[in-house]
């Protein structure tokens, strides 16, 4: 009798776990009732004929996060699980994670500096209101473009300001001027100077990285000539706040950098919370360079990007 039960329970387990038969199909196959099949499957588990192992990739996130934290000397690494290694899917998950972290950490009196772009827009859309006092929100770089391509610059700073019950402080300028002389003249305006200074004073900065690939947002906005784009693609790997850097995180074109309006990268690296939100294979080089440059002390990314950075 015991041998028969053992044989039946193993057969039932094989059909159920290996061949995806339903319990009713197994009952028909073995000539027993469906409740008997349920008891046979339970018996197979109790006797150790079946061992169920669930592989949850999210359980490895803490390990990956700690390795990233150590490798790049970061204060905090927040990893989220993305079911697909695709840019839009990754952006959806990391932006939500970043919004939750920002909501949890912003306190009364914080000054929050924000940039723009599609990742930042996704973060802003996920933000939830928080009852805080005396918070200020400021743009960290110019947000005006002559292109029809949407940067979401004004919308992003407005959304941040709205959830923290404050007024948005804009930099109503192009992010890159045609000449250093014009850029310096504009920065002499006391209103513009006060906003740039507020950006320097911000203790929280939220930003992403851009790339130097042909479809890069800044290239599509029409700021650069073809020769300038070639220079940036040849010597750079990405940008933060429209400051372009090479694979070691160093500014790759002083001429372009000197025409750029907004926070300087050394000032960004001094923030109490410099939060880099970025992920996806197309941004790996730029993220790694940004971390080498020490421009962020908090990283929000996904498990695929984390694995690539560790390699």
From TrEMBL:
Show the InterPro entries listed in the entry.
HTH_CRP (IPR012318), NagB/RpiA_transferase-like (IPR037171), RNA_pol_sigma_r3/r4-like (IPR013324), SorC_transcr_regulators (IPR051054), Sugar-bd_dom_put (IPR007324)
A GO BP term here is:
regulation of DNA-templated transcription
Keywords, in A-Z order? DNA-binding, Transcription, Transcription regulation
Q: Which domain of life is it from?
A: Bacteria
Source organism = Paenibacillus baekrokdamisoli
An annotated Gene Ontology molecular function:
carbohydrate binding
What's the protein called, per UniProt? Deoxyribonucleoside regulator
**Could you say which protein family the record assigns here?**
Belongs to the SorC transcriptional regulatory family.
